[in-house]
Amino acid sequence: MRDVIIVGGGPAGLNAALILGRCRRNVLLCDAGRPRNAATPLTWGIFTRDGTPPAELRARAEADLDRYDTVERREIEVTGALRTEDGFAVDLADGTREHARRLIIATGLHQDLPAIEGVSDFWGTGVHSCPYCDGYEARDQPLVALGHGPTAKGFALELTVWSRDVTLCTDARPTDLAAQDRDRLARNGVRVDERPVRALRGADGHPTHLEFADGGTRPCRAVFLMPAGCRPSDLLAGLGCDLTDKGVVPTSDYEKTNVPGLYVAGDASRRVQFAVVAAAEGAMAAFAVNTELLREDTR
Description:
Layout: E1 2-7, H1 11-22, E2 27-31, H2 54-65, E3 71-75, E4 78-84, E5 87-92, E6 97-105, E7 127-128, H3 131-134, E8 143-146, H4 152-158, E9 166-169, H5 179-187, E10 190-193, E11 197-203, E12 206-212, E13 217-219, E14 222-225, H6 234-238, E15 262-264, H7 275-298
Parallel strand pairs: 1-2, 1-6, 2-3, 6-15, 7-14, 8-9, 8-14, 9-10
Antiparallel strand pairs: 4-5, 5-6, 11-12, 12-13
Helix pairs in contact: 1-2, 1-7
């Protein structure tokens, strides 16, 4: 019986393992090797590591873990998990089963991309989900907010931090823009284009323009996708974990879930989806787990 099993080897899982290793906890970290940011060339917004390739960040973090002999890392998929009387049982892709007193899920989310030609080709290099992460590199150039619905206006206005050349493209989907919404967008230099989008075109790995179904085009250096429902790990539903309508876990203090002993840290939890925030959530979950285990062991 291990103290903790961590599922997911991104910033949240790696930092949780680091803190728990320093607490001398017996930890198994399992990662399937399919990071959400695999297509992203560089990771921004992490102090002392701004602009570091994601793979390099992971390699550095894994090297840090090597000094803690109570932490084991395995590159393997977790295929199932269930609650037991004394903790959790976790099934691995090789047919083995591991047991732990506590479980941290740090698998992140799967990003669903719009079914528009070219969008997947530029994912990570010109199509992004977070302007805080990638807006600076496209500053003062034509930006597109691709989205619809009542929050589209706010998302488009957010992009004006990085450029005054912003277009809200709704792809002919309902957006419910009232007259005052359109006036506010116009006052701030945001155009609204409600035509259906045919394709995103570009060259040398970067977008250059959107192509619409009517044959028209619009210059575009980067497309930012509105936050939308993402697919969390199937493990969460199987464990009986609550989910919001956007597919994230409504964790409480220190990343606790409604399932006793289960913690969710990183992009699958409720906070903003920054790498540095995910790492912090992993640390908070590790702190809470160690505190719980300490209480059990000293009562």
